[in-house]
Amino acid sequence: MNLFNVFTEIEKIDPDAVERLNYYSRRQLFRMGAKATAAAVPAMFATLGTAYGQSNVINDVLNFALTLEYLEDEYYKRGLAASNLIPASDRAIFMQISKHEDAHVKLLMGALGSAAVSKPNFKFPADAFTNYQTFVFLAKAFEDTGVRAYKGQAANLMSNKDILTVALRIHSVEARHAAEVRRLIPGLEETPSDPAEQPAAVYAGEENLVQAGINLKTLIPSLSDSELREAFDEPLTKEQVLGIAMPFIQ
User: Fold this and answer.
1) Tens of pLDDT, residues 130-187
2) Would 163 disulfide with which of 38, 52, 242, 250, CB 3.0-4.6 Å?
3) Whole-number Å distance between alpha carbons of 124 and 180
4) 231 pLDDT tier (thresholds 50, 70, 90)
């Protein structure tokens, strides 16, 4: 593992993460050299774990997030490794998304330390890595699930400001992924050949027209129901997210 690359990828998500460890600054780590840096990493991650994984509730949320990040990380790595799947024009997009997911996994594993859940074995639809249409639609479903999953767990992280901040930063990156993947969809057919490959559960609750007790239809009657729904994104519960993810876990 290239530790300097890990730090770089972590800082893409949370620019202050390494500095907040209060152990070594990133500049000091570079001056120490590779051997000394490797020796310091266990203590550094222990500090991160103390700051971020200090309660069972928070550990549960982090492991929940880690499982989703494992899923996305594995999906994009398999997609990039598949022959003749991703067009050359889109390959750089998925390479960057894959780097982000890899950084998310490493950060969450470091925060959890020995409490981190093991990576499951994943299974994907037979044509996910031979049919670009299926690959993109599943990527959209996974990214949308990730966005709504982080949103659904925010309340459980409010006791730890640092980890809530990091989770929100990951959440915003997942949202950018979802937007970028959506940009690739025009020109593709509206749905994959097998509807089961785009789980309806991913979008459960999106029909909601009431926000903060306010009926949007009454408030803004000039907009269609579809436009009003799309202006807000609903959270998913842990149970809902696991219901979406479990079919992909062996």
Assistant:
1) 999 999 999 999 999 999 999 999 999 999 989 999 999 999 999 999 999 988 886 5
2) 52
3) 22
4) confident
Task: Return the number of other C-beta atoms located less than 10 Å from residue 105's C-beta.
Answer: 22
CA distance 70 to 102: 8
Q: Rounded distance, CA 197 to CA 175, Å?
A: 21
First to last CA, the chain: 27
> CA-to-CA distance for 156 and 44, rounded, in angstroms?
25
pLDDT confidence of residue 21 = 41
Q: What is the pTM of this model?
A: 0.71
Consecutive H or E run containing 210: strand 210-211
Identify the residue with better confidence: 226 or 20: 226
* DSSP state at residue 184: T
Helices (H), the chain: 3-13, 17-20, 26-32, 34-52, 56-81, 88-112, 132-153, 161-183, 216-219, 225-230, 238-245
Rounded Cα distance between 101 and 80, Å, is 13
Give the Cα separation of 64 and 117 in Å (integer): 9
CATH level 2 (architecture), domain 55-248:
Up-down Bundle (1.20)
| CA pair distance 218, 17, nearest whole angstrom | 44
